[in-house]
Design goal:
Length: about 200
């Protein structure tokens, strides 16, 4: 995976070449990603869906993350990223049913790792998502949902924990999850990213 080749960009968003994924994160090149957030409406409430990253993942194992997301390879267009949805959670989503939310530019840095993403963000509104999901165990070990209103309040700093419900796959057995989580259980995308996401999704529902 570190040898995947990604397009790289300068600070103004101009494409400047191609580099391996390892180089992109070691040097800190801007690169493209595809993010798709899933939402459902049930019983008069909106729910947002989160994947639980596999413990096998090199980066951010066992943390909650975007429903489905991944890097765009050098030979891919933005909507080719829809493959990530099927690969990670096993749901086929027609491209025409994706709602574009725009491109979010953000950076996360830790020792030896700089993630500068141009994230092309989409929203999918569906039904029975927990029941339909088929997880790619190398990437995703579980899927949960949270009330969207609570998710918004969490990332806007109005509350410090929310309840998530769903399941995790352990030794091919589906184990129910129902627990309260704080912000430290989420992949540490820049806080501004989460703030932008809740506002953008709220504008569509």
């Amino acid at each position: 995976m570190d040898h995947e080749r990604l397009k790289i960009f300068d600070d103004n968003g101009n494409e400047i070449g191609v580099a391996t994924r390892e180089e992109v994160h070691r040097i800190g090149h801007w690169h493209e990603a595809f993010h798709c957030w899933f939402l459902s409406r049930e019983g008069g409430k909106g729910y947002i869906y989160l994947q639980l990253r596999s413990k096998l993942k090199k980066d951010y194992p066992n943390l909650l993350d975007i429903t489905a997301a991944g890097h765009l390879l050098a030979n891919e267009k933005v909507l080719d990223g829809v493959r990530e949805i099927h690969e990670e959670i096993g749901i086929d989503v027609p491209i025409q049913e994706l709602l574009p939310l725009g491109t979010i530019k953000y950076c996360v840095t830790k020792p030896g790792f700089t993630d500068k993403e141009l994230a092309h963000v989409y929203l999918y509104i569906g039904e029975n998502i927990l029941g339909k999901a088929v997880l790619q165990k190398e990437e995703v070990s579980g899927i949960v949902r949270a009330e969207f209103q609570s998710f918004c309040q969490l990332w806007l700093g109005l509350i410090d924990r929310i309840r998530v419900e769903g399941y995790e796959i352990i030794d091919d057995i589906r184990i129910p999850i129902s627990q309260e989580v704080q912000r430290d259980r989420f992949v540490p995308h820049d806080k501004s990213y989460y703030e932008d996401i809740v506002k953008l999704i709220a504008s569509q529902i």
